[in-house]
Amino acid sequence: METVSENRAFGGTQGVYRHTSTSTNCEMTFGLFLPEEAKDGPVPLLWYLSGLTCTHENAMTKAGAQAWCAEQGIAIVFPDTSPRGEGVANDDAYDLGQGAGFYVNATEEPWAPHFQMWDYIAEELPTLLGEKFNLDMDRQAITGHSMGGHGALTLAMNLPGRFKSVSAFAPISNPTASDWGRKQLSAYLGDDEAAWAKHDASLLMAEVGFDGPVLVDTGTNDQFIDLLKPEALANAVATKRQHATLRLQKGYDHSYFFVSTFMEDHVSFHAEALYGE
Amino acid sequence: METVSENRAFGGTQGVYRHTSTSTNCEMTFGLFLPEEAKDGPVPLLWYLSGLTCTHENAMTKAGAQAWCAEQGIAIVFPDTSPRGEGVANDDAYDLGQGAGFYVNATEEPWAPHFQMWDYIAEELPTLLGEKFNLDMDRQAITGHSMGGHGALTLAMNLPGRFKSVSAFAPISNPTASDWGRKQLSAYLGDDEAAWAKHDASLLMAEVGFDGPVLVDTGTNDQFIDLLKPEALANAVATKRQHATLRLQKGYDHSYFFVSTFMEDHVSFHAEALYGE
């Protein structure tokens, strides 16, 4: 693992690191903010999964999360959203290929050799982080934005016991029924929709739910709200009697101005779960 | 004036606007965050002047200022750092020409026709803002980063009564004695150094000072600290017996991670001055 940069921030350190991933078979870059408390002992870890077109950098510089994580003594990791590089398959569309990994393990060509983002986020990167940094891997929580909200919700529900809490900003909530989902799940996983179900937050919520608190914010003026389908998740949450808070935030759109506005709430929400016991 | 975008943020609105400037003879773009309180009546205005290579966008997306301005009910404006466009003179260097206006009125060719950033920030943009938005122009404060810290300090001291308070992040503090300054002042203003003095914060501080509180933060690990010369400003402040707080922040560098870390302090500092009377 190589250190790309380290900047002092909010009493801690905002680092960027690069490593060769055995899941995605390429170099992967991630951002990690460690609060001051990490000097003295392991700190809880919040995952932030980003949306379409993003790298590790967007949320790291624009979401304003470090201020609140520093206040709570929590680390936050910003993984990339896909494999990248010359030898990695891509597509001209912004919503397929590089920058659009959708947090799945691709089984189809040309994607399968590198697009193994599920394994990367669920297995490889947590192992690396636990080895290299002063993190308490028994206290993890997860959040994300848009495609990353989809990733956060599906990882949380598929890995019971891993995360104490899950939240999302404007998540893609029902990809098996949306143009943000059907195209990508078909390309990465093939046409058998049975393989898609574990990557649909609304289907998972109806089926298994989450053993912890859930917080989801979506803007009423989100320009992509018809693709996000918050109504499907809301219906599943209510039907499942899931412990959850779903908020439609008046006038907010899909941008990082929306994300940063509610970041304090989300970090506080996770801190309560992480420090609760 | 044309609205480029408006995003809801922290209960208010983050807008981007474009207009034809009579000072710089080109289209100019600026960001303006208006807190929710601006719906009900005029709100105080904080100026944020950016550094070399920046546009109106950098601080608007990376400094995290809106959270604190919303909390205090203060508007914040993010002007561009120079004229721009095809007909505007430029230089291959990052620190001269477009993105590097240095907040002066150029008298020399090829810069003079467009590089009138002093007039733009001191006269034209305040007039426009006062006309178009619900701002209390009797309550203004100013801050900035690097070249923008230089701009904030020199505007504040040259326009007595305009600003209730001035602060700066890692300001270029003594440009007449630095490679960040001599090159640009010579290019824009010519070789007569008498014309440079009103654009040097340390010289101004020794000569006239500021009728209000001053706050300056610089990182001890700032990679450009030898160009910034905080020691010149510190010496002038102490000699002048200026009401001021100068802080060297251990381990911080020149990045926006440094700026965002101390933004809450700076906004609180200005709020106290703006609401003090």
TrEMBL record, chains A, B:
GO terms for molecular function: carboxylic ester hydrolase activity; S-formylglutathione hydrolase activity. The keyword Hydrolase applies. The active site is at S146, D222, H254. One of its GO terms (biological process) is formaldehyde catabolic process. Coiled coil: none annotated. Gene3D superfamilies: alpha/beta hydrolase (3.40.50.1820). One of its GO terms (cellular component) is cytosol. Keywords: Hydrolase, Serine esterase. It catalyses: S-formylglutathione + H2O = formate + glutathione + H(+). Its EC number is 3.1.2.12. NCBIfam families: fghA_ester_D (TIGR02821). Belongs to the esterase D family. PANTHER family: S-FORMYLGLUTATHIONE HYDROLASE (PTHR10061). Serine hydrolase involved in the detoxification of formaldehyde. This is S-formylglutathione hydrolase. The lineage of its organism: Bacteria, Pseudomonadati, Pseudomonadota, Alphaproteobacteria, Rhodobacterales. The gene is fghA.
